[in-house]
Design brief:
With 340 residues, the chain is of the alpha+beta class. Helix content is 22%, strand content 31%. The strands form four sheets. Strands 9, 12, 13, 14, 15, 16, 17, 18, 19 and 20 form a ten-stranded antiparallel beta sheet that branches. It has a four-stranded antiparallel beta sheet with strand order 3-2-6-7, with no helix packed on it. The radius of gyration is 22 Å and the shape is globular.
Amino acid sequence: MSEDAKKIGLGLRVIVKEVKSELRLALPEGTAARVGPAAGAGVSRVASRRATCRYHAQMHRRSALAFLATLGPASLGALPSVARAQWPEAAAVPGGVALLELGAAGRPRPSATYGGRPVLVRARGEAWVAVIGIGLAADPAQAQSLVVREADGRERRVAFSLQGKQYAEQRLSVAPRHVELSKEDLERYERERAHLGAVLRQFSAAREPATLRLVMPTSGPRSSSFGLRRVFNNQPRSPHNGMDIAAPTGTPVLCAAEGEVLDTGDYFFNGQTVIVDHGQGFLTLYCHLSAIDAERGQRVAAGAPVGKVGATGRVTGPHLHFSVYLNAQSVDPALFLPPA
């Protein structure tokens, strides 16, 4: 192992050790047995220590991600497997992410398209890898192919296959106007759909994503999983194309990775929304906000505030709807986030 790789590995072990140390401070021994009014002050202190612990652990993790984002392909190739956590989990299923090697990274970067749309390509170790977003409507029975164009103009196709995945069903009750749209609401929705479609198809080829791993955009339980087949007021609708994170109104919403604010607005279904471009078709969406704290064109760092949790648009209560897009396809955010 090279000296650089040894230093990198040592640095990562130090970060892991610091996070573990913070976590051990979260809950003093014997606290779990304290109940009732007499324990109120102690429980309050424990809650405060827990919050402080979570904050410091998150800061150490962000420092690690920022450090990894500065490394070049050669250095990444020398890292132990834990350091390669800047990549999403591969899942070649509808709503998932396929990772396909395209050739040696020593050659000029190739470009690639899937379904006619450009695809993110970046180096991993000594190979170029295409990071392909698979739409929820993709049919695993159909043959899949990626069109690869080399720097000299030669084209080739790379075949790959998908596995099936069965998503659960969810039934919800919402205000009737968000299911049976009036003429005015339908016209508004159609205008917004056209606008958002154009936004989500953006592909900023010159912007290199700092990382393909994301930090949690807000604190709270993941109250609804991606891909659920949703039924509103007994009427089937499109599958859920994001992750819902339950949190009280006003809870800060943080940018999940470094990027530039591509769009903000107040939309019929999504409510107040922020969309961030992380580069090469890799986008994140933050919906149902009670407030927007970022402006279009603003550069934002990972962990920077972009809004506050709310209950705007079509909702049953306050939460953050968080979506991830690759090559204009919504994909499972859990593939990019720390485990729940």
